[in-house]
Design a protein that fits this description.
two-stranded parallel ribbon; 7 helices
């Protein structure tokens, strides 16, 4: 707020408005509260208010619901959705939880080892996941049809170290579908045949599957 050239009194008024905007009760009193006196959900709301202070056209939300219970997660998602609508603002939501953003995002880019391996509108990702990593992520989500105490699916192996990426496809060492060509060159994002034209995947094997 100070970066926008506001005097202290005006900045305090704007801070109170922002806290009210993100649903903080009694915002004027809360401005004198220490962080440890706020709940996890309220601290997340304060951070969102700070992100909105400069009036951004793009808000980057990096794991904003981590360590929150599902009820508070839902509240934060609803809050960001509402703010996006009212502020004419775009949001980039960074998360490991695909289920969380199923009803929030318009488009998903799935990254592995710093590389986009699949990029598509939300419905295409859930209706026709194409990259083996995307399939693995979705398979690991619990469903209502799962048997009690059943083990969730998992992806074997470990991600590569940032400075020691393997040659070729970075996911190949963990991929059950990998072939020799996967280790030769990094696959480029290619449109998935027969799918939404905006659906792209970086995988030699699944692209050939879709073409066959």
């Amino acid at each position: 707020i100070y970066q926008k050239g506001m005097a202290k009194a005006a900045a305090l008024i704007r801070a109170e408005e922002l806290l009210a905007m993100v649903g903080i009760p009694s915002p004027k009193e809360r401005m004198a509260t220490y962080p440890h006196e706020l709940s996890g959900g309220m601290r997340q709301r304060v951070m969102i208010a700070m992100g909105l202070a400069g009036g951004p056209k793009l808000l980057i939300a990096d794991e904003p619901t981590t360590a929150l219970d599902v009820t508070i997660q839902a509240q934060i998602v609803d809050l960001v959705r509402d703010l996006k609508s009212k502020s004419d603002m775009s949001v980039v939501w960074i998360t490991h939880d695909l289920a969380l953003i199923a009803g929030l995002a318009d488009r998903i880019a799935v990254l592995y080892a710093g590389t986009v391996v699949e990029d598509a509108p939300i419905n295409a990702i859930f209706d026709r996941p194409t990259h083996p990593y995307t399939r693995g992520l979705l398979a690991s989500l619990p469903t209502l049809s799962d048997q009690p105490m059943a083990r969730l699916a998992s992806i074997g192996g470990t991600p590569p170290e940032p400075g020691r990426r393997p040659p070729g496809c970075p996911f190949a060492p963990r991929c059950a579908m990998a072939i020799a060509a996967c280790a030769e060159a990094v696959p480029q994002l290619t449109a998935v045949p027969g799918s939404d034209p905006r659906h792209r995947v970086a995988c030699i094997v699944t692209t050939c599957e879709a073409t066959a």
